């Protein structure tokens, strides 16, 4: 039976950690792709988070795409030279084709590579990966890992607050009229990540009220507390304010992550997010 120390952990770059930062936590990051005009750039390798945000603020049109098959295959091949198994945890299959591609590549390696759909992204992905690692340490069998993770994964939630409606409009998630009315009334939507999908949550009047609503939503879904990661797209002050509000209520914040290219492109610079899961 493979133990956690004999398993290499892989995640895609929606994780919200730099490749170097992730490696310090024993996680190997494979890059999503950022599309800029006719250029395809590897997230955090060919283009940084700061460059993504700068391009968006300048009005450039960007999109994101799944991890390249070749990057997954080469990562698995390299890691299997020093580890018995590879656990590859990825952004929700409802949001990206990365999971499907990873599963196709994993079949080339038999039982040595297992792919898990996190049903989330960013901090939610990290929470699911960390739970899988805890389960392996506790002795859960490799062949039963996914079913063991499933109850935890189902309870992971994300709450995403954009600072403006501009980028949701650009990505086609809201209409021009909705953007106009929202801007006129200073109305912002809270987006909820649940069951692998991004759903429309409550609407709030202004960003400050939105931060308060994120805390309320966390309390609604985790009345007994939970594990929390924050994330932001170039808005450290917003994340700091949210973290202070949570800590004032006795909530432990595990860390603050980068929102990453996928969140930044769709929700825009200034976005702040809260990802939470139950205590293991």
From TrEMBL:
Molecular function as annotated in GO: lipid binding
Pfam families per record: DegV
Gene3D superfamilies: 3.30.1180.10, 3.40.50.10170
InterPro entries according to UniProt: DegV (IPR003797), DegV_C (IPR043168), DegV_domain_contain (IPR050270)
Keyword annotations from UniProtKB, A to Z: Lipid-binding
UniProt keyword Protease present: no
Cross-referenced SUPFAM superfamilies: DAK1/DegV-like
Organism domain of life: Bacteria
Protein name from the UniProt record: DegV family protein
Organism of derivation: Thermus scotoductus (strain ATCC 700910 / SA-01)
